[in-house]
């Protein structure tokens, strides 16, 4: 290698360098990211029995239970997290912790999603749930700043796709659009509950020019992605089974890939894919990070973003996801910067907010990493 070639070579990524990189996470569930210590404390207060009362043992239980290859069983773990998020105190504590933990991991912008309808068991109203979560985020952001970490958080109000409250939850999101809520989502069991079941809710959001994303292409195939696109989604939650609409000849480069009508549409319009590699392995998308379609989709030019999905269930963080992609799929600093910028400009925050974060945090952060390397 010549001196000129080596000058342009990207720096070798280390765990310490990755930890410091500015990150953007668009797909992270509030009820999937609890600290085990927090769960234990809250469970004791509300009288809920957990599978374990030692923090390490509890953390291991969640990973083992989620690591089944079944989305249905994966979703069952949420019964315990949701059980301790039925009071103002519990919701506030979990949201505050999330802001602090994400900021400490280098996340500069996060969209946190949760379903208010799942937190009404002890008599809270939908609006009281939203208020408690928002106050928790505000307090967590302030505490993170005191520790030297600047993070901006927007919330996505989620409706459960198997329920019949989509319009009501969409109206809740709209009522709080200037109070921290930046978008809408549907989540839960994907197979058998197509996005079109919530068509009325999506129509209401489109009338108000309010952004939404849809879980699609995780537990169901390309047809689910097609359905989400038909509803007008601006992003795809996971979306990785879009590869079912792409023919890739064995041992050929991406130049020989043949895209179907759906995948071509998503590519041409650069609809961001909210990919969560570790979570996808748990739900059977791929066997290893190296085999995960995220790298193939990136190489084809899709708008790929990297996410955590559920930090507790996957025992993960944004830094861990980056480390796995670097170690097992040869992702470079340039790859991570591109995915981070795609995520930033695909965020539902207002443009001026995104441009400030990019100019003041993301670009300088990557420049510093290159200088360090």
From TrEMBL:
Domain Adenosine deaminase: 22-358
Any GO CC annotation of this UniProt entry: cytosol
Keyword set, alphabetical order: Hydrolase, Metal-binding, Nucleotide metabolism, Zinc
SUPFAM superfamilies referenced in this protein's UniProt entry, alphabetically: Metallo-dependent hydrolases
Enzyme class: hydrolase
EC number: 3.5.4.4
Classification via InterPro entries: A_deaminase_dom, Ado/ade_deaminase, Metal_Hydrolase
GO MF annotation, one: adenosine deaminase activity
GO biological process: adenosine catabolic process; hypoxanthine salvage; inosine biosynthetic process; nucleotide metabolic process
Superkingdom of this protein's organism: Bacteria
Known cofactor(s): Zn(2+)
PANTHER family the record matches: ADENOSINE DEAMINASE
Family to which this protein belongs: Belongs to the metallo-dependent hydrolases superfamily. Adenosine and AMP deaminases family.
Designated name of the protein: adenosine deaminase
Organism: Serinibacter arcticus
